[in-house]
């Protein structure tokens, strides 16, 4: 049986960590197909990893096995889990990394990966991607039932990250950053459908205001494309993954506007 195993990590591309994970997968399940979602998640940035994972998983074929590892708590008491959603099965540390993916692919059941029979013989305290998640994924691809990988856990006990949902009142929406992409565009935790439900009348004007790390306030035009503002000017727009983003036309909003994790984007009806 051939199964697709998709990988997302913060391991980077300079070392052999990704290759070691793939080697375990291919040695234990030679018929599996391996797809790299990304290994460029900023180191230890679980929030960014959660967004990147959720941006990719809707496009995977049904039945994919997803290994997601951004794991600053590796080797501690945090759980390693496998979660079966409606469409895919996820293996990850239980640290909130799956929060956004499981919002769109609701969990049906989950287990703690605590059955050593399905791990490598020696499990490093600092490399569970290779020694625990990869072998468990390979066993799943080979047809081992999820329930054999460990003890069942209630899906509603899985960890969730804070500030994933916008604060919405009749007067305003407030949201925080999720991720900064390769271009320096900053993705905020507001999806288009939530905004449209709040706005009501599509012609109603809206003011968008950014408060950055230094407390400075900047009003941004809400536009459809970069070309609607001049070169070097800031803008807010709906990104291709359906989230509100802040950018600089031809520059890095994260750098030029000093947007850190504690920045707040506020939308107010005019």
Write the layout of secondary structure elements.
Blueprint: E1 4-9, H1 17-28, E2 33-38, H2 46-56, E3 65-69, E4 80-85, E5 89-93, H3 99-104, E6 107-112, H4 128-141, E7 152-153, E8 167-168, E9 172-175, E10 177-180, E11 186-191, H5 192-199, E12 206-211, E13 217-220, E14 234-238, E15 243-248, H6 253-256, E16 264-269
Parallel strand pairs: 1-2, 1-3, 3-5
Antiparallel strand pairs: 4-5, 4-6, 6-7, 8-9, 9-16, 10-11, 11-15, 12-13, 12-16, 14-15
Helix pairs in contact: 1-4
CATH uppermost class of the largest domain: Alpha Beta
Sheet-strand content, in percent, reads: 25-35%
Give me the secondary-structure category. Answer: alpha+beta
Rounded to an integer in angstroms, the radius of gyration calculated over CA atoms is 20 Å
Biggest beta-sheet profile: 7 strands, mixed
Give me the number of helical elements. Answer: 6
Q: Low-confidence segments, ≥5 residues, pLDDT <50?
A: none
Distance between the termini: 57 Å
Structural domain count: 2
């Amino acid at each position: 049986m051939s199964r697709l195993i998709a990988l997302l990590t913060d391991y980077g591309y300079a070392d052999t960590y990704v290759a070691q994970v793939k080697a375990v997968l291919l040695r234990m399940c030679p018929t599996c197909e391996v797809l790299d979602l990304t290994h460029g998640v900023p180191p230890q940035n679980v929030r960014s990893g959660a967004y990147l994972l959720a941006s990719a998983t809707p496009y995977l074929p049904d039945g994919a096995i997803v290994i997601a590892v951004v794991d600053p708590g590796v080797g501690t008491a945090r759980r390693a889990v496998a979660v079966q959603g409606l469409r895919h099965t996820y293996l990850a540390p239980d640290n909130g990394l799956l929060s956004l993916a499981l919002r769109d692919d609701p969990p049906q059941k989950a287990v703690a990966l605590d059955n050593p029979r399905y791990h490598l013989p020696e499990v490093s305290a600092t490399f569970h991607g290779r020694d625990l998640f990869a072998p468990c994924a390979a066993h799943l691809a080979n047809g081992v039932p999820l329930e054999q990988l460990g003890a069942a856990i209630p899906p509603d006990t899985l960890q969730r990250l804070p500030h994933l949902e916008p604060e919405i009142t009749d007067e305003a929406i407030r949201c925080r950053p999720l991720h900064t992409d390769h271009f320096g565009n900053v993705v905020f935790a507001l999806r288009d459908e939530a905004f449209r439900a709040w706005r009501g009348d599509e012609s109603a004007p809206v003011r968008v205001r950014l408060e950055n790390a230094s407390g400075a306030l900047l009003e941004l035009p809400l536009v459809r494309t970069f070309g609607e503002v001049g070169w070097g000017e800031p803008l807010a727009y709906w990104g291709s993954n359906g989230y509100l983003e802040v950018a600089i036309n031809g520059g890095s909003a994260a750098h030029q506007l000093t947007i850190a994790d504690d920045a707040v984007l506020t939308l107010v009806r005019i």
